[in-house]
Amino acid sequence: MGRDMNAVETAEDEARSGKGATRPFAPYEWMIAGRYLRSRRKEAFISVIAGFSFAGIMLGVATLIIVMAVMNGFRNELLGKILGINGHMLVQPVDLALTDYDPVAKRLEGVPEVMAAIPFVEGQALVSGPAASLGGLVRGVQERDLRRIPLIAETIQRGTLDNFDDGTGVAIGSRLAQNLGVTVGDHITILSPNGSVTPMGITPRRKSYPVSAIFEIGMSEYDGTFVFMPITEAQAYFNMEGRATGIELYVADPDRVGLLRAAVEEGAGRPTFVTDWRQRNVTFFSALEVERNVMFIILTLIVIVAALNIISGLIMLVKDKGRDIAILRTMGATRGAVMRIFLITGASIGCVGTIAGFLLGLVVCWNIESIRQFISWMTATELFDPTLYFLSRLPADIDNGETVTVLIMALALSLLATLYPAWRAARLDPVEALRYE
């Protein structure tokens, strides 16, 4: 009671001096709003509601930032892995077999923004080892081209790519090597249904190859499927002597592939069919985008619920402080001053909660892989199974634009939540409030 009387006396002094009556957000308005935010025994329930509102805003903002960062990281990692090994554009022959793949690749590398053109031979086969037999995707490339693919050349765990063109060794993914039970120097058997033509029909082709290198891209789907061999060996194995399946193009900006299509078709100098990564993965990335947008909408509801808590808490505070509001009004405080006091009270909860949520979200995003490993260790479970989620680690990529959008949305909702209770406080009739006091 003594503190409230001090606040009232201060308000009275400023009202008499003409300061508080004309200047918005005067010091006494901030002081009274601060008093209302402090917990007193009689107002403990209101303080509990304010605490829940603060926690709701903080957790809502933090959750939005974390989930959006993980979704962005997941998309960027998948995009980088998929495009890093499959290329941004695929050039395939039309009418005539691609026997002139080297001259065509040189012409395509002369097209502006094309960084690399890599001819390849590709086919599916059954890959067998001491431990298992699995389906694999066999791709034949030249050593110089294989070294131009960073996801392969820079992720060699064991072995080497030296003299890759000269030998008959193959490079396989780490997960495939683990499942087959092989390591560098061991042999794997590749079985293809498209073998030699005999009077009895087509017989499957079976051949053994030593493992010369093991790579780990970090995407389980590729680490457990791809087998790279010299292009000349792949041509002989798949009965494609002197021919290539297609040419993979890597460009400077993957988002500009649509603008490069005409230049690529002209630069090839022969009839070709050109597709880009968006066409080949349209369903997959569209599903990711839809999931990301739905998650944003759902998690925004957490912030909205917290804003509703601010409304309920402020309405209860207005009812509890009806007598104090009436005394302020009789001493000269304007309706605007009363409204600003409660605006400051509610907005403070939202602003501090938003800032706390932002900091919490940043800390979690920066350490999300360590947190995942710790929780997995504590619970003895696999929280992010690479066989289900394709990636071997949990990524988080904070987008500045999205983060600013989340902060602005949370601050706007917090401010809007204070308008009605503040307006109710400003419209309070001093006579009615003091009639039964």
Automatic annotation (TrEMBL):
Membrane-crossing ranges are 44-71, 294-318, 338-362, 404-423
Protein family according to the UniProt entry: Belongs to the ABC-4 integral membrane protein family. LolC/E subfamily.
InterPro entries in alphabetical order = ABC3_permease_C, Lipoprotein-release_system, LolCE_TM, MacB_PCD
Q: Which GO terms describe its biological process?
A: lipoprotein localization to outer membrane; lipoprotein transport
Instruction: State the compartments where it is located.
Output: Cell membrane
User: Which positions are tagged coiled coil?
Assistant: none
Q: Where is this region: Disordered?
A: 1-20
The ABC3 transporter permease C-terminal domain covers 296-430
| Protein name, entry field | ABC transporter permease
Origin organism of this chain?
Answer: Roseibium aquae
